[in-house]
Amino acid sequence: MSRNSAPRSVWRNPIHFLAFGFGSGAMPYAPGTFGTLAALPVYLLMQPLSLWAYLFVVAVMTSVGVWLCHVTSRDLGVHDHAGIVWDEIVGYLITMIAAPPGWQWIIAGFVLFRFFDIIKPWPISWVDRRVHGGLGIMLDDVLAAIFALAVLQGAAFTLSGT
């Protein structure tokens, strides 16, 4: 595992600060995992929203994320720098769409999203290699989140007995 090297601009440039997940992506190891951890308080703040309001906020964060990740990647001169974790924050929020209440679901969503984001089954791996810029940075995590969302909802449906 290589050590993440975060540029100083993370602490000076608000765009980089957001792209680096409020600074969580500056962690020297496992920045994606720390970025996903940074999504937990965001999720807890969004959890009381209606489904439509939640979806709207996630859509805005996804759209803004394409721009944030593009600008930060361009400024750093590195496509998908390990510290850019806005995509992990959005990915976790997508995973948690309509999730049942309870810490077990919050943790399950975290584990499932990290699993699909790290393993990158097809078509996630294809997108990760072929789609560039801010869209590419965001899209592989959005797809990982959709996989995680499907498994989480499947588990919730199965365990509910309906």
Topology:
Layout (H helix, E strand, L loop, with lengths): L13 H6 L11 H16 L4 H26 L9 H10 L7 H17 L4 H7 L2 H28 L2
Helix pairs in contact: 2-4, 3-4, 3-7, 4-5, 4-7, 5-7, 6-7
Explain what the structure shows.
With 162 residues, this protein is mostly helical. The chain has helices at 14-19, 31-46, 51-76, 86-95, 103-119, 124-130, 133-160. Helix 2 (31-46) crosses helix 4 (86-95) and helix 4 packs across helix 5. The longest helix has 28 residues, at 133-160.
End-to-end distance: 43 Å
What is the alpha-carbon Rg in Å?
Answer: 15 Å
Shape, please?
Answer: globular
The tally of helices reads 7
Biggest beta sheet attributes: none
Which percent range describes the beta-strand content?
Answer: under 5%
Number of domains: 1
- The topology string of helices and strands comes to HHHHHHH
Can you tag this structure with a few keywords?
mainly alpha, 68% helix, 162 residues, 7 helices
Task: Characterize this entry briefly.
This protein has 162 residues and is mainly alpha-helical. The protein has helices spanning 14-19, 31-46, 51-76, 86-95, 103-119, 124-130, 133-160.
